[in-house]
Amino acid sequence: ISVLGVPVSSLVAGLRFKQRSYGALLIGSRRSRVFQPGELRLLLAISHQISVTLENRFLHQEAERHHERLETLHHVGAALSATFDPDVQLQTLRTELKELLGAKNFSLTYQDPATGDLETVLSFESSPEEEELEDKGLLQYVFETRTSLWIAYNLLGRSRLLGIPSVDSRIRTW
After folding, report:
1. Most exposed residue of 32, 48, 134, 135, measured as fewest CB within 10 angstroms of its CB?
2. Could you tell me the pTM of the whole model?
């Protein structure tokens, strides 16, 4: 390796722990030299310690996110149990889901067991001027198959594969 024409000797150790890669640690010298085996072992030991620290930070952040989700679920459950007024429950659900999931669009749809008709009882959009997002094709699929549906990308293509005839093109994930 050379930097601006000046030869550089370097050692590089990957920052990995289990199945995760966090980056690399590079040690360099502006003069050409041969690093000794002890220097390589030291670099590997230091990179391992850094990797463990990064893994611990990652796991701590994951634990904090999980704890926050559990707290929110407890809060939502307590708020919904505090009243039997469906309007208050729906408003609580709307507020909590918007905060919990950072959702820009949300709707709650009921299916009439006698007729099979779908009725959206609560929804919110990312801005007041936006038209309500409502996709009966996706909702009908969920009601008919009695399964949850999660599509993280290529919603239109994946919906077609499931046999869902139409999907609101403004919806990106489901």
Report:
1. 32
2. 0.54
